[in-house]
Amino acid sequence: MNKNLPQAIAMVRELLAGDGDVAATIGHALDGAGLLVDPERTFGAVLRRTPQGWAPVAPATQPAPPEPTELEQQASDWDAACQRAAQLVDVVRATYAPEPDFVGVRADRDTVVISLQIAELSRWAGWMSTLGIVEHQLTGLDYVVCGRTTIGDVPVSVLAYDVPELQLVAQAKARRPYRHCGLIYDLAVGHRDITGDTWFFHGDYSAEGVPLLSQDGRPERCTLAAVVDLLGPILPVREPVAAAQGGERG
Q1: Does the bond joining 59 to the residue before it have cis omega, within 30 degrees of 0?
Q2: Which of 56, 114, 180, 228 has its CA 20 to 30 A from that of 5?
Q3: How far apart are CA 81 and CA 136, in angstroms?
Q4: What is the value of pTM for the model shown?
Protein backbone atom coordinates (compact mmCIF):
# COMPACT_ATOMS: atom_id res chain seq x y z
CA MET A 1 0.00 0.00 0.00
CA ASN A 2 1.13 3.54 -0.72
CA LYS A 3 2.67 4.92 2.50
CA ASN A 4 1.22 8.34 1.73
CA LEU A 5 -2.34 7.01 1.53
CA PRO A 6 -3.35 7.28 5.25
CA GLN A 7 -2.15 10.86 5.46
CA ALA A 8 -3.90 11.78 2.22
CA ILE A 9 -7.13 10.21 3.51
CA ALA A 10 -6.87 12.12 6.81
CA MET A 11 -6.34 15.43 5.04
CA VAL A 12 -9.27 14.81 2.69
CA ARG A 13 -11.48 13.73 5.61
CA GLU A 14 -10.76 17.01 7.43
CA LEU A 15 -11.77 19.06 4.40
CA LEU A 16 -14.76 17.14 3.10
CA ALA A 17 -18.02 16.08 4.64
CA GLY A 18 -20.41 13.57 3.26
CA ASP A 19 -22.22 10.32 3.79
CA GLY A 20 -20.05 7.28 4.33
CA ASP A 21 -16.26 7.31 4.20
CA VAL A 22 -16.06 9.55 1.18
CA ALA A 23 -12.47 10.56 1.99
CA ALA A 24 -11.24 6.95 1.90
CA THR A 25 -13.01 6.40 -1.38
CA ILE A 26 -11.41 9.51 -2.86
CA GLY A 27 -7.99 8.60 -1.50
CA HIS A 28 -8.09 5.09 -2.94
CA ALA A 29 -9.34 6.42 -6.24
CA LEU A 30 -6.44 8.90 -6.42
CA ASP A 31 -3.95 6.17 -5.57
CA GLY A 32 -5.44 3.79 -8.12
CA ALA A 33 -5.14 6.47 -10.77
CA GLY A 34 -1.44 6.85 -9.99
CA LEU A 35 -1.82 10.41 -8.76
CA LEU A 36 -0.26 9.74 -5.34
CA VAL A 37 3.51 9.24 -5.04
CA ASP A 38 4.89 6.51 -2.77
CA PRO A 39 8.50 7.41 -1.83
CA GLU A 40 9.27 3.78 -0.88
CA ARG A 41 8.30 2.36 -4.27
CA THR A 42 10.85 4.03 -6.52
CA PHE A 43 12.29 0.57 -7.27
CA GLY A 44 9.10 -0.17 -9.18
CA ALA A 45 9.72 2.44 -11.87
CA VAL A 46 8.53 1.39 -15.31
CA LEU A 47 10.15 2.64 -18.51
CA ARG A 48 8.60 3.22 -21.90
CA ARG A 49 10.21 3.84 -25.28
CA THR A 50 9.99 7.31 -26.79
CA PRO A 51 11.49 8.74 -29.99
CA GLN A 52 14.17 10.31 -27.80
CA GLY A 53 14.96 7.08 -25.90
CA TRP A 54 13.75 5.52 -22.67
CA ALA A 55 11.58 7.52 -20.23
CA PRO A 56 9.70 6.65 -17.03
CA VAL A 57 5.96 6.15 -17.05
CA ALA A 58 4.65 9.07 -14.98
CA PRO A 59 1.36 10.95 -14.53
CA ALA A 60 0.74 13.60 -17.14
CA THR A 61 0.87 16.25 -14.45
CA GLN A 62 4.52 15.44 -13.63
CA PRO A 63 7.13 16.66 -16.14
CA ALA A 64 9.80 14.22 -17.34
CA PRO A 65 13.18 14.58 -15.59
CA PRO A 66 15.67 16.66 -17.60
CA GLU A 67 18.48 14.11 -17.20
CA PRO A 68 18.14 10.32 -17.69
CA THR A 69 18.01 8.29 -14.52
CA GLU A 70 20.45 5.43 -13.93
CA LEU A 71 17.78 2.92 -14.95
CA GLU A 72 17.06 4.84 -18.15
CA GLN A 73 20.77 5.01 -18.97
CA GLN A 74 21.19 1.26 -18.42
CA ALA A 75 18.27 0.56 -20.74
CA SER A 76 19.67 2.89 -23.40
CA ASP A 77 23.14 1.33 -23.10
CA TRP A 78 21.64 -2.14 -23.52
CA ASP A 79 19.77 -1.05 -26.66
CA ALA A 80 22.96 0.46 -28.07
CA ALA A 81 24.95 -2.73 -27.34
CA CYS A 82 22.35 -4.89 -29.08
CA GLN A 83 22.36 -2.52 -32.04
CA ARG A 84 26.16 -2.71 -32.33
CA ALA A 85 25.95 -6.51 -32.32
CA ALA A 86 23.34 -6.46 -35.09
CA GLN A 87 25.54 -4.15 -37.16
CA LEU A 88 28.59 -6.38 -36.63
CA VAL A 89 26.63 -9.38 -37.90
CA ASP A 90 26.33 -7.68 -41.29
CA VAL A 91 30.05 -6.87 -41.34
CA VAL A 92 31.10 -10.42 -40.40
CA ARG A 93 28.78 -11.96 -42.98
CA ALA A 94 30.10 -9.71 -45.74
CA THR A 95 33.73 -10.36 -44.73
CA TYR A 96 33.79 -14.09 -44.05
CA ALA A 97 30.86 -15.64 -45.94
CA PRO A 98 33.15 -16.68 -48.86
CA GLU A 99 35.35 -18.76 -46.53
CA PRO A 100 34.74 -22.53 -46.88
CA ASP A 101 34.51 -23.03 -43.10
CA PHE A 102 31.92 -20.29 -42.57
CA VAL A 103 28.48 -21.63 -41.65
CA GLY A 104 26.69 -18.56 -40.36
CA VAL A 105 26.57 -15.61 -37.96
CA ARG A 106 23.82 -14.24 -35.76
CA ALA A 107 23.26 -11.77 -32.96
CA ASP A 108 22.39 -13.13 -29.51
CA ARG A 109 21.28 -9.91 -27.81
CA ASP A 110 24.54 -7.96 -27.30
CA THR A 111 26.80 -10.84 -28.47
CA VAL A 112 27.69 -12.05 -31.96
CA VAL A 113 27.88 -15.81 -32.53
CA ILE A 114 29.95 -17.11 -35.48
CA SER A 115 29.56 -20.76 -36.50
CA LEU A 116 32.32 -22.61 -38.36
CA GLN A 117 32.59 -26.16 -39.72
CA ILE A 118 36.28 -27.01 -39.52
CA ALA A 119 37.73 -29.74 -41.77
CA GLU A 120 41.44 -29.12 -41.06
CA LEU A 121 43.14 -27.93 -37.87
CA SER A 122 45.30 -25.59 -39.93
CA ARG A 123 42.11 -23.75 -40.89
CA TRP A 124 41.14 -23.38 -37.23
CA ALA A 125 44.64 -22.05 -36.50
CA GLY A 126 44.06 -19.41 -39.17
CA TRP A 127 40.69 -18.42 -37.70
CA MET A 128 42.19 -18.13 -34.22
CA SER A 129 44.92 -15.86 -35.55
CA THR A 130 42.49 -13.74 -37.57
CA LEU A 131 39.98 -13.29 -34.75
CA GLY A 132 42.57 -12.91 -31.97
CA ILE A 133 41.56 -16.00 -29.98
CA VAL A 134 44.12 -17.31 -27.47
CA GLU A 135 44.36 -20.37 -25.24
CA HIS A 136 42.57 -19.05 -22.15
CA GLN A 137 39.61 -17.99 -24.29
CA LEU A 138 38.85 -21.58 -25.38
CA THR A 139 36.32 -24.02 -23.95
CA GLY A 140 35.36 -27.30 -25.52
CA LEU A 141 32.77 -30.06 -25.68
CA ASP A 142 32.88 -33.41 -27.45
CA TYR A 143 31.90 -31.91 -30.79
CA VAL A 144 32.69 -28.18 -30.67
CA VAL A 145 35.27 -25.72 -29.40
CA CYS A 146 34.09 -22.28 -28.36
CA GLY A 147 36.47 -19.34 -28.56
CA ARG A 148 35.53 -16.03 -26.98
CA THR A 149 36.93 -12.76 -28.23
CA THR A 150 35.82 -9.22 -29.06
CA ILE A 151 35.58 -7.31 -32.31
CA GLY A 152 35.61 -3.62 -31.57
CA ASP A 153 33.71 -3.51 -28.29
CA VAL A 154 31.28 -6.31 -29.20
CA PRO A 155 31.71 -9.69 -27.47
CA VAL A 156 31.99 -12.56 -29.97
CA SER A 157 31.58 -16.31 -29.49
CA VAL A 158 33.11 -18.52 -32.21
CA LEU A 159 31.75 -22.06 -32.42
CA ALA A 160 34.21 -24.33 -34.23
CA TYR A 161 32.46 -27.62 -34.94
CA ASP A 162 34.43 -30.90 -35.33
CA VAL A 163 37.64 -29.41 -33.89
CA PRO A 164 37.72 -31.84 -30.90
CA GLU A 165 37.51 -34.84 -33.25
CA LEU A 166 40.24 -33.42 -35.47
CA GLN A 167 42.42 -32.90 -32.39
CA LEU A 168 42.04 -36.56 -31.43
CA VAL A 169 43.00 -37.66 -34.94
CA ALA A 170 46.02 -35.33 -34.98
CA GLN A 171 47.06 -36.54 -31.52
CA ALA A 172 46.98 -40.15 -32.71
CA LYS A 173 48.94 -39.45 -35.91
CA ALA A 174 51.65 -37.25 -34.40
CA ARG A 175 54.92 -38.94 -33.42
CA ARG A 176 55.67 -36.23 -30.87
CA PRO A 177 52.40 -34.43 -30.14
CA TYR A 178 52.35 -31.13 -28.30
CA ARG A 179 49.14 -29.19 -27.61
CA HIS A 180 49.11 -25.39 -27.74
CA CYS A 181 46.07 -23.10 -28.00
CA GLY A 182 43.81 -26.02 -28.76
CA LEU A 183 45.94 -27.25 -31.67
CA ILE A 184 48.21 -30.31 -31.95
CA TYR A 185 51.77 -29.78 -33.16
CA ASP A 186 53.97 -32.73 -34.15
CA LEU A 187 57.42 -31.87 -32.86
CA ALA A 188 58.92 -34.64 -35.00
CA VAL A 189 58.52 -32.51 -38.14
CA GLY A 190 59.34 -28.96 -39.07
CA HIS A 191 56.77 -26.17 -39.13
CA ARG A 192 56.71 -23.41 -41.74
CA ASP A 193 55.71 -19.89 -40.64
CA ILE A 194 53.90 -17.23 -42.68
CA THR A 195 57.19 -15.86 -44.04
CA GLY A 196 58.21 -19.24 -45.49
CA ASP A 197 60.88 -20.07 -42.89
CA THR A 198 60.83 -23.53 -41.31
CA TRP A 199 61.28 -24.10 -37.58
CA PHE A 200 62.49 -27.32 -35.95
CA PHE A 201 62.38 -28.77 -32.45
CA HIS A 202 65.65 -30.33 -31.24
CA GLY A 203 64.56 -31.60 -27.84
CA ASP A 204 64.95 -28.53 -25.63
CA TYR A 205 62.26 -26.83 -23.55
CA SER A 206 61.93 -23.49 -21.82
CA ALA A 207 61.74 -23.26 -18.02
CA GLU A 208 57.95 -23.27 -18.39
CA GLY A 209 58.01 -26.51 -20.37
CA VAL A 210 57.32 -24.97 -23.79
CA PRO A 211 59.25 -26.52 -26.73
CA LEU A 212 62.08 -24.40 -28.11
CA LEU A 213 62.29 -24.11 -31.90
CA SER A 214 65.07 -22.90 -34.17
CA GLN A 215 65.68 -22.42 -37.86
CA ASP A 216 68.30 -24.70 -39.37
CA GLY A 217 71.82 -23.40 -38.95
CA ARG A 218 70.90 -20.68 -36.48
CA PRO A 219 71.70 -20.79 -32.77
CA GLU A 220 68.73 -18.62 -31.71
CA ARG A 221 65.89 -20.51 -30.04
CA CYS A 222 62.30 -19.34 -29.71
CA THR A 223 59.45 -20.96 -27.88
CA LEU A 224 56.76 -22.56 -30.00
CA ALA A 225 54.28 -20.16 -28.40
CA ALA A 226 56.31 -17.12 -29.50
CA VAL A 227 56.68 -18.40 -33.05
CA VAL A 228 52.94 -19.04 -33.26
CA ASP A 229 52.07 -15.62 -31.83
CA LEU A 230 54.49 -13.65 -33.99
CA LEU A 231 54.67 -15.69 -37.20
CA GLY A 232 51.67 -18.02 -37.06
CA PRO A 233 49.82 -19.91 -38.04
CA ILE A 234 52.65 -22.39 -38.55
CA LEU A 235 52.01 -25.47 -40.67
CA PRO A 236 53.76 -28.85 -40.57
CA VAL A 237 56.18 -29.88 -43.29
CA ARG A 238 57.70 -33.28 -43.95
CA GLU A 239 61.32 -32.33 -43.40
CA PRO A 240 62.73 -34.48 -40.55
CA VAL A 241 64.48 -33.05 -37.51
CA ALA A 242 68.23 -33.60 -37.96
CA ALA A 243 69.39 -33.39 -34.34
CA ALA A 244 68.80 -36.02 -31.68
CA GLN A 245 65.65 -35.35 -29.75
CA GLY A 246 65.25 -35.19 -25.99
CA GLY A 247 62.66 -36.69 -23.65
CA GLU A 248 58.94 -36.57 -24.38
CA ARG A 249 56.77 -33.75 -23.07
CA GLY A 250 53.53 -31.96 -23.97
Answers
A1: no
A2: 56
A3: 25
A4: 0.61
